[in-house]
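In this supplementary section we document a worked example of the pipeline. Step one takes a protein sequence of length 401 as its only input; no multiple sequence alignment statistics are reported here. Step two produces a three-dimensional model, which step three serialises into structure tokens for compact storage. The input and output of this example are shown verbatim.
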Amino acid sequence: MVDKNLFLHDLAVVAILKNEGAYLKEWLDYHLLAGVDHFYLYDNESPDNQAEVAAPYVEAGLVDYFHAPGKVMQMAAYNDAVKNFKFHCRYMAFIDLDEFIFPKTNQSIVETLDEILSQNPNAAGVAINWQMFGSGGQETADLSRGVLERFTQRAPVDWTPNNLGNASVKTVANPRKINFLIYPHHANYFEGLHAVNENGKIVPNYLNNPVTVDKIVVNHYYTKSKDEFFQKIQRGRSDIPVNTYDMQIFDRFDCNEVFDDGILKYRAARTFKHENRNQKLSRVIETLTQILSTAPANLETALTCLTLSSYLRENVLPEMSFCEEISLKKVAELSAKMNFVEASLLIRELPKILRLPYPDVKKIRAACLEIIPQMLPVLREKVGVSRDYIELDYLQDFLRS
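The serialised model returned by step three reads:
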């Protein structure tokens, strides 16, 4: 467990978006009220006013906005966020612009996550079930009102046609435990870790059935009005190369059996409470210096200290190179007795570490050379981790050269 005050952001949302200018403000404002304090947004060639809508949030330090041109860019965006920002935020959520995370506990999203994940030390993420909302019979788009106000009818909780529908989940996770993402719905975690549902039950993939929605759900406004779904068809998909959207899908997913305005009541009860950039930096620097004056409790903490020291040195205070060197020394000390998960995390950071100009880099290199041969037999025997095995094999040869 890493001290939450060490992170620049408590919960960040990662999303790829295209032509979402009409919906972006409501989506951002809702999640800010629900406890999200940062967004990594990837613009997939949007010709509308999406960037202009995001601009005030970028200026306020709430959004990092990137351009992600090309086809099938969703997973590339997700993995880019994990690679570059996993030490900046305690949790990361991976959702779309038609999805709203709704804690039914009336707490913030983070408070709900903390309660769920605190029960299982090997839980690296929470798999949250969908609740599919339909059009409510609306043919045209009334953009004078928000999505949450316009669509208040959904499918029953147990609507799981072909074991899909509400059985599908979206992921909020500790990004430092993520190996990689190859699907929009769930993550591949380091060996020995897993996602859980709201009741602590392991969820091995993109489905959680029976559906559990007592504590937290993802309201999925998949169809909206008929006209808006037609626009979805025109945009295509960002996760697979084939556009599978058509109006038959609208008919199949346009479920309106249950009236549900719970998210509106939740939003009305929330107030906006966030630190500004200077407050965040002051808190992080204070926590960083306190931890380094004693000793980081684990390698995850030490690597977080190292990454944040480097970030602060490059962007805020050049004199933070002192903390960077101390953090690296702590990483070197802890790497001599790291476990499998810690080794996996450290190895992900090796390219950055090997470029640093400090003597302890050699100790970290030696520690990785020692543990990689112990990890390879485990990965060789596991189904589905051949990619990890091959990467480690190549890395071992590189470190020996």
